[in-house]
Design a protein that fits this description.
InterPro entries: FAR, FAR_NAD-bd, NAD(P)-bd_dom_sf. This protein is of the alpha/beta class. The protein has one domain: Rossmann fold. Helix content is 49%, strand content 15%. The protein has helices at 3-10, 23-35, 51-63, 69-75, 79-86, 104-113, 130-150, and strands spanning 14-18, 41-46, 87-91, 116-119, 156-159. It has a 5-stranded parallel β-sheet. The longest helix is centred in the last third of the chain and has 21 residues, at 130-150. The two termini are 27 Å apart. The chain binds NADP nicotinamide-adenine-dinucleotide phosphate. Residues 18-19, 21-25, 47, 93-95, 120-124, 136, 140, 160-162 line the site of NADP nicotinamide-adenine-dinucleotide phosphate (NAP).
């Protein structure tokens, strides 16, 4: 696939990203917003107690990072409205059924809209406690797969893992 066809494919797409605070997820988010600003929506799943905490984490630990400097400079005073239009912070956790998305309306909206899922949530501690590693890196993947199966128009599930 050449770059033009990838950009064409991403136009107007709705994408769920888990692990967006992580090394890989954050680079993915920045790149999508930079190369295809006509993406429809990015749902960023973050571990947080509620939507406000997830949104705060998103601004502190993702959008506020130096990595987003180019986009900030490009959009200038429109940067905040661009982010508000395209990016939604979702409180969730892959160790739970339905990825821990408790709000029914939001969950239905996600099932209806999401076409692409990037699962980059994972524990990358090689000496992690066994039960924690199992719940995130094994059962978490099962939960993401179940979530993807409930999406009405799934096109791509991209899972990254070391193992
Ligand atoms: N980095 C590489 O070069 C590389 C190469 C090959 C494969 N991989 C694999 O790619 C994946 C991502 O790597 P990375 O380097 O981006 O890792 P990372 O920087 O450690 O980020 C891990 C991400 O997973 C999230 N997460 C952890 N537990 C979660 C849970 N229960 N529910 C939802 N999110 C959770 C973390 O969120 P919090 O902020 O809440 O902790 C964080 O955003 C891993 O599986 C890794 O093994 C990475």
């Amino acid at each position: 696939m050449d770059l033009e066809s990838i950009l064409g494919y991403l136009q107007n797409k709705t994408i769920l990203v888990t692990g967006a605070t992580g090394f890989l997820g954050m680079v993915f988010v920045e790149k999508i917003l930079r190369v295809q600003p006509d993406v429809k929506r990015l749902y960023l799943m973050l571990r947080a107690s509620d939507t406000k905490s997830a949104t705060d984490r998103m601004h502190d630990q993702i959008i506020g990072k130096e990595l987003f400097r180019f986009l900030k400079d490009k959009w200038g005073t429109d940067f905040d409205s661009f982010i508000a239009e395209k990016v939604v912070a979702v409180p969730g956790d892959v160790t739970f059924d339905e990825l821990g998305v408790k709000e029914l309306k939001l969950r239905e909206e996600m099932y209806t809209g999401i076409e692409i899922i990037l699962n980059s949530a994972g524990t990358t501690k090689f000496d992690e406690r066994y039960d924690i590693a199992l719940s995130v890196n094994i059962f978490g993947v099962q939960h993401v797969l179940s979530f993807a199966k409930k999406c009405l128009k799934p096109e791509m599930l991209l899972h990254v893992s070391t193992g």
